[in-house]
Amino acid sequence: MRGYGGSDKPPAVGDYAMEHMVADVAGAIRALSPDAPAVIVGHDWGAPIVWNSALTRPDVVRAVAGLSVPYGGVPARSFRDVFEEVFTAKGRFFYQHYFQQPGVAEAELEADVRRSLRLFYYAISGDAPDGSWPADKTTADNLLSGLTDPRPFPAWLTDADLDYFFGEFERSGFRGPLNRYRNHDADFAWLQQFKGRKIEQPALFIGGERDLVLTMLGRRGGALDFMKGDIADLRGADVLPGCGHWTQQERPAEVNQRLVAWLKSL
């Protein structure tokens, strides 16, 4: 995925628009599976990328699974407009608003990469107690203020894992990943040409009961209810009890069991 690890890191914000991310996925599929469409699975930003790849490139996508982030259909408005109305206009902190000004979040996260990763991974995991993501943060706060660094860290993220992620982000920086959040308006405009289209391929969703993605805009648990109108063949929409945002890391056995069963159904 562009911006991360050893992948290319183009400098412009617009280089990280959904249109380009989908084109990257389609290019990877053509390279790895030139004679047949592929099954694709994505988590976090990977989920909207694979959902939209299935929607816009059915010629190369045979089936699709999203973890953490459910599919909400072709948007009726830019998500930037949504969070500005729900959070920013009321003076409430929202991480994606904080990410909008290039350089601000990069400076905070890159000041101490290991600490940044520890704080952020823990705060939105299922192991963090209620309130680990402070509800009283305002637009004057930064991303990491009020977050806890646990000792020891939950076992699902080992020291070796953290060492690896630290090395990758220390080398690549956070600009590319953060640029993805700066393309809501461009993504909205691009997706309008697909209005009225459903994802027709076999699909699967797996989320976490304590994942803030499912609750930050008031949705709670019923992933199937708001997905089934936009996905013609949704074969499962499971929300794992006690699981936070890091679905496949926090609950590898449960995730693998559901993925394998779904893959066998294709």
Strand order of the largest sheet: 1-2-3-4
Beta fraction of the residues? Answer: 5-15%
Mean pLDDT across all residues, rounded? 95
**How many strands?**
4
Compute the CA-based radius of gyration: 18 Å
Q: Could you give the order of the helices and strands?
A: HEHEHHHHHHHEHEHH
- Ends distance: 26 Å
- Count of DSSP H/I helices: 12
Profile the largest sheet: 4 strands, parallel
Q: What's the shape?
A: globular
Would you tell me the structural class of the helices and strands?
Answer: alpha/beta
Low-confidence stretches: none
Helix percentage range = 40-55%
Task: Report what the structure shows.
With 266 residues, this protein is α/β, with parallel strands linked by helices. The chain has helices at 18-32, 46-56, 79-86, 95-98, 104-111, 113-123, 159-172, 175-179, 184-191, 223-227, 247-250, 252-265, and strands spanning 38-43, 61-67, 199-208, 231-240. It has a four-stranded parallel β-sheet with strand order 1-2-3-4, sandwiched between helices. Strand 1 (38-43), helix 2 (46-56) and strand 2 form a beta-alpha-beta unit. Helix 1 packs across helix 2 (46-56) and helix 6 (113-123) crosses helix 7. It is globular, with a radius of gyration of 18 Å. It starts with 17 loop residues before the first helix and ends with a helix.
